[in-house]
Amino acid sequence: MSPRSARRARLSRSVTFSACHRLHSKSLSDEENLKLFGKCNSPNGHGHNYKVVVTVCGEIDPVSGMVMNLTDLKECMQEAIMEPLDHKNLDKDVPYFSEVVSTTENVAVFIWDSLQKLLPQGLLHKVEVHETEQNVVVYKGEETIVK
């Protein structure tokens, strides 16, 4: 390939936020919630220090040498992740979770949807949410087709 040929790359940036939540589904009885979610269903909730890794993928700009300016990505992540989620009770402070169980899977979907509104179309590649060192969700915008 010549130096002027287009190249694609992935660029990732991470942030950490703290939040609390209670795993509880309004569609289930208290007994069913306790059986399904165990200690994570405690009425007082529990907290995590979440780590989020956002990856964008695109063509390397021949002038700037970047897929995306990191400063712009940082600002998008601040608006989409830190402002709505950091030091919040997900179930009480984030309207999205008033009707959606605040599992890590759904946190990843919330972040994806929020970033999609801010980033150039087609640039977002994946969102990784690390709830703990052992529990990680990776979301790439997949949707299930309803039949």
From TrEMBL:
Query: Per the record, GO CC terms?
Result: mitochondrion
- Report the protein name in the record: 6-pyruvoyl tetrahydrobiopterin synthase
* Gene name for this UniProt entry: Pts
In its UniProt record, a GO molecular function of this protein is: metal ion binding
BP GO terms, sorted: tetrahydrobiopterin biosynthetic process
Similarity comment: family membership: Belongs to the PTPS family.
Q: What does this protein do?
A: Involved in the biosynthesis of tetrahydrobiopterin, an essential cofactor of aromatic amino acid hydroxylases. Catalyzes the transformation of 7,8-dihydroneopterin triphosphate into 6-pyruvoyl tetrahydropterin.
UniProt keywords (A-Z) are: Lyase, Metal-binding, Tetrahydrobiopterin biosynthesis, Zinc
Q: List the EC numbers from the record.
A: 4.2.3.12
Q: Name the PANTHER family for this protein.
A: 6-PYRUVOYL TETRAHYDROBIOPTERIN SYNTHASE, PYRUVOYL TETRAHYDROBIOPTERIN SYNTHASE
